[in-house]
Design a protein that fits this description.
By secondary structure, this protein is of the alpha+beta class. The protein is built from 18 helices and 31 strands. α9 packs parallel to α17 and α16 crosses α17.
Length: 779
Amino acid sequence: MGQFGRRQVRAEDDNLIVGRGRYIDDVRFPEMLHVVIVRSQMARANIKIDIAAALAAKGVHAVFTASDLPAAARILPDCHPNPTLKNPRGPQVLADGHVRYVGEPIAAVVADDRYLAEDAAELVQVDYDELPAVINLPAALQNGSPLVHQDMPSNLAARLPVQTGNVDEAFAHAHCIVRQQLEIQRGAGQAMETRGIVAYWSELDERLVVWNVSQVPFVHRTAIANALGLPEDSVQVRNGDVGGGFGYKGLTYAEDLLLPVIAKSIGRPVKWIEDRREHLIASYHERTQIHDLEMALDKDGIILGIRGRFLYDTGAYTPWGPVVPLLTAVNIPGPYKVRNYKVECDIIFTNTVPTAPVRGAGRPQACYVCERLLDAAARELKMDAAELRRRNLIQAHEYPYELGFISRDGTKRKYDSGDVPALMERALQILGYDARREEQRKAHTEGRYVGIGIACCVEDTGLGPFEEVGLSIELDGTATVRMGTPSQGQGQKTAFAQIVEHELGIPFNKVKVLTGNTDLVRYSIGTFASRAGVVTGSAVLNASLQLKDRALAIGGTLLQVPKEQLEVADGAVRLKSQPSRGVSLAEIVHTSLGEAGAPLPLRDFGPGMSAVASFSPQTNTFATGCHVALVEVDPKTCKVKILRYIAVEDFGNVINPMIVDGQVIGGVGLGIGNTFLEKVVYDEGGQILTGTFMDYLVATSMDVPRIELDYIATPSPLNPLGMKGAGQGGTIPVPAVLSSAVEDALRSRNVRLTHVPFSESDLFAALCTAKADGAEVRA
């Protein structure tokens, strides 16, 4: 007992550490063929394709173009339809006469092996009639701009307004108004494992089996069934081990429909493994937003209102609807009291890779712009940055806290629980804030540039509508959990086994958690939006409680005592007053099943020990956090050294703190990359300039310092576990807190940071600009 909240070593890791993991490229079948995708080399063009030479090449079995696809498999479905998106455009599975970004799929070559397929792909002749591309976000809305989609009047996909209160009146009575024009530049997920698919059609079973790296296998099952006109039970989607997802593996890509179509058409297993260059130029991106926002405050630093507008780059299509910019728009107030708020977002098409959620999903942008406004206000009011935040944070007694507008899930946005002031004070205490401020002043007199950054955040977690699990106790007394929520490395096999052990007393190593197979349960939503622990975990708890009640009832019958006198512990039902007297769960299962040819002995209970349970959250839970960073900047080299990084989080009750530690540390690592390194760059013609790891930089172990962690839990009242999600909170505040710290270090030079990521070259340019403006200059 007592497994919930324990630092249990992950059950998944033994196989992975010794190389016994089974990733997508490890899946092999006899007579398997290999697929290579021919991709567009132009950002915008009319095209003609000649496949004759490729078809005649050695080992080639087929070359698929758009005309070879069923009508229902030519355009991808909208993963998240939303009425605010007036002009949705699903990606083409294979480009049909027109391409809209570099990397868009044009044709698929099927050959005996990958090498022959690569050679044949070079023989596919694509005649490009190149057209002007739309790359610059503000220019895309100007009159006369080329159109990404010729059937639309402009490149505006949607306009999203979010507002509450009377923002004009608030600004009319403001003592201080600060304005920030900020840009968050495009980045990518870059998991260790690229995407990949293996598919085969079984004539014997009349069934399509698809191996994928999906975060949403049931979504893919539905999309594949619809594309091929099959019943859903004729499609099985399976996941093996997955080397990271980060959100961008959580929706349907062209290849997710293309490979099943090829497999069914050819009648042999087919495999496609994305190489790293494809991953860099064609897997969905995120982040690009340009903000022009104002914050109004009174003379005491109390926020009166926020208003403004931002632009969001959706790329050439809208595969995930308006989810990311909507999450930004509703998250800008963060954990602060903003009673008057009016922000509008324009979602804009460009001739670039489509965008979708990447870890944080619009919230790092929201946190960045809010905290940048607060830093600007602190300077203007000559107020300590921590004090300004203290005056505006929602207080613990004010929860649940309504923000006055609608959240992503269509419900009123209401923070269920939290105590961000306590998180911030704990983070400042760990840092030794007052002492560090004094040391900062002393360092400045010595010509050293030390700065402190503070950022607080909110994350919507535990998204609905439901998850379903099956739980059974086997004849040997072990337990098996069956669920549809796939794992992307979050340690689900460990965490959910802990819940079962906690409730049923079955030893941890005797609880098997099965996932990654659409045959295990009837329906599932998937793993994204920090939802697995909250939603699937609560379903596991509900199933455990059902079996616990059943075990007590059967045990009471067998032991001839009221079930109220019994407990479930150590894999048995036993008397509370006499633990030595009991009946094992294995014996209960055996007894309930009876003997062949004889009447069922426990007719009132029925056979076996199994349950199917689900959990449907009313609305989101809200995790919160405060990150504090201490940095030193060398103005000669523009190098930034992170001296200390502190993260204090409220994820509600935590199943396994060790796993959560890993989530936060990994999240901060990604956030450091987002702050200093990771940037997708296009030239004016739409050619991607960061198509290798020589140009697209990611954080390494040398860039990530030791992360100091602490947790203060305010349990959520919205689920029986009291949990909040922990998947993205580590990433969300990082660009904000590090930008704040670096700017604070260079405040005597009047440096202003208005975009992320920023490199040493960007810092050098900012220092030069500040010097030209007459700021203080020190050696």
